[in-house]
Amino acid sequence: MSYPYQLKSIEAYRAAYKKSVEDPESFWTEIAENFKWRKKWDKVLNWNFKEPRIEWFAGGKLNITENCLDRHLETLGDKPAIIWESNDPEERTRVVTYERLHKRVCQFAQVLKNNGIKKGDRVCIYMGMIPELAYAVLACARIGAIHSVIFGGFSARSIADRLEDTKAECIITCDGAYRGGKDIPLKSVIDDALVGNNLVKKVIVYTRTRIPVSMIKGRDVWWEDEMLKVTDTLPVEGFGDAEVMDAEDPLFILYTSGSTGKPKGVVHTTAGYMVWTNYTFVNTFQYQPGQVHFCTADIGWITGHSYILYGPLSAGATSVMFEGIPTWPDAGRFWDIVDKYKVDILYTAPTAIRSLMGYGLDPIKDKDLSSLKVLGSVGEPINEEAWNWYNEHIGKKRCPIVDTWWQTENGGILISNLAGVTPSRPSWATLPLPGVQPVLVDENGKEVTEKDEEGFYKGNLCMKAPWPGMLRTTYGDHERCRTTYFATYDNLYFTGDGALKDEEGNYRITGRVDDVLNVSGHRIGTAEVENAINMHASVVESAVVGYPHPIKGLGIYAYVIVTGFHGDEERTRQDIVQTVSRIIGPIAKPDKIQFVTGLPKTRSGKIMRRILRKIAEGELDKVGDTSTLLDPAVVDGIKEGKL
């Protein structure tokens, strides 16, 4: 498969970017022509940020799975679409070719239909990272059902909230899941979530761990039994046919945390999301046919949706799907996978990189990483020390690192260097992709035109125009979408992040705007302080929040994970303070440093600073629900050690 829209030089990038801003309709028409449509669009773009209303390829008809599967069958049918690596390194690899993936998706699409699921219905998926999760997601898209994947670590209460919000009538799950040394009882959690739920009519259960489960007659069915009811022969009339979808029909709902504490159901639609994930995948990673792409995210998060499934599959790529965690059975697991499958592209999170840094270089020894051509970072701004370690020890200083910035609401990468095409710069996301029009504004919404004393433009990161992959609404509550993203600044989409921009137009993300501390009248970004703390030789990771200070208004409270103490704890505290003072200045020195063994994180690696803030403020009984965290026990340890 060729990609005529792949940008192979900085001149090509500049020309594409210029055209995408000056004539977006013509630009995106040329890109969209490379996909399979049942009917071409009437108009490329309609938009209004006031309402807000965004429509891409209006009037177009298609099915995203025909673009991810059917159109590849003739040329790539026997090529691997998904390479699945089990949690257990001794378990057999499963290589799912495009032909097999197409067959399984069509079969499971028929299972869904047999169980009463139709176009427009919402289906929640709560599974481990196994190929059947991909089958379920794509089968929903095949028949026009709206999928909502819930990460397999969420609690029953969180699932119940999402079921209530989506009004889902079907859940697809497993008896259990393997994750590192743990067995997670998924079906049991679903049973708890369904107490009092009168809407869910079907629960389809795949057998993975063989843990005993309760199966309720009339509601619960086994995946394997349902698949036996489907004909094995293709094609059969009415079997495997893809539902014709409108370009703006919803594809999926994905929940993301909101400032109110109630998760928001971000809605992405079919055509724009497809075009955007494909375009950003092919260009950011400079994907070449036949390469092996390994995104380490979970499909329960947007990164997995866009860069394990839809982006790579629509490009005819080979995507590695990993059930386990990077440190089990040892800290060399990622490197084993790279070696085993000759991975070309590795896309992971700074959290994972920093965690693996803490194990030293022994886990990398004797691992052949020579197949790697591109490294990627996603999820949060990567600090310079982690960038350098990744570059030196994993990329061997020969692999470009793409430092990608984007969010659940964005659908795909918005700001990043393009691997080997546009310049990279440690801890800078660098340039916007074609179609992305960033602007930095002050608190009043006025564009920042004056540089600060360090020579940067600094402000709140907004977008002036839509791109194909952006969210369309928040499910069932369009007003919440408007007030969260479009009401803060007039006629702008507000990302919620702050950023710096240099003279060449490169961007560096400084973190959430609500994570900026006002200390003695000085604005200090928590990410900036954390980066400085992380530069200390003994520090693995840190998180910084503000707490009430009698003199400064806000003091800086740092939670720090260290590999060991040089001398004693107090000496190490002084060393860290000195490091921060040297890198940023005395104003940014932490007032309190608490040493911890872990930080409260979601599975995607996001640190829940809301919890840390409450502890720092002394409100230990107000930390809220911790059941959705990767390791809720971490919070108890932090409470006990509070300074």
What is the compact description of this entry?
This protein has 643 residues and is an alpha/beta fold. Strand 28 and strand 29 form a beta hairpin.
Descriptive tags:
23% strand, 643 residues, five-stranded parallel beta sheet, Rossmann fold, globular, 30 strands, alpha/beta, GMP Synthetase, Chain A, domain 3
Would you mind describing this structure in some detail?
By secondary structure, this protein is of the alpha/beta class. Among the domains are: 97-243, Rossmann fold, CATH 3.40.50.980; 520-640, 2-Layer Sandwich (GMP Synthetase, Chain A, domain 3). Helices cover 30% and strands 23% of the residues. The chain is built from 19 helices and 30 strands. A 7-stranded mixed β-sheet has the order 5-4-17-16-18-19-20, with helices on both faces. Strand 29 (553-562), helix 17 and strand 30 (592-595) form a beta-alpha-beta unit. The longest helix is centred in the first third of the chain and has 17 residues, at 98-114. The chain is globular and about 70 Å long. 51% of the residues are buried.
Give the topology, please.
Elements (H helix, E strand, L loop, with lengths): L9 H13 L1 H9 L10 E6 L4 E6 L2 E2 L1 H5 L4 H4 L3 E6 L8 E4 H17 L7 E5 L4 H13 L2 E4 L6 H11 L3 E5 L2 E3 L2 E3 L1 H8 L8 E5 L13 E3 H6 L16 E2 L3 E7 L7 E6 H15 L7 E4 L6 H13 L3 E5 L10 H9 L3 E4 L1 H8 L16 E4 L6 H11 L6 E3 L34 E4 L15 E7 L9 E2 L3 H9 L6 E9 L5 E6 L3 E4 L2 E4 H9 L4 E11 L3 E10 L6 H15 L8 E4 L13 H8 L16 H8 L3
Parallel strand pairs: 4-17, 6-7, 6-8, 8-11, 11-12, 16-17, 16-18, 18-19, 19-20, 29-30
Antiparallel strand pairs: 1-2, 3-13, 4-5, 9-10, 14-15, 15-23, 21-22, 22-24, 24-25, 26-27, 28-29
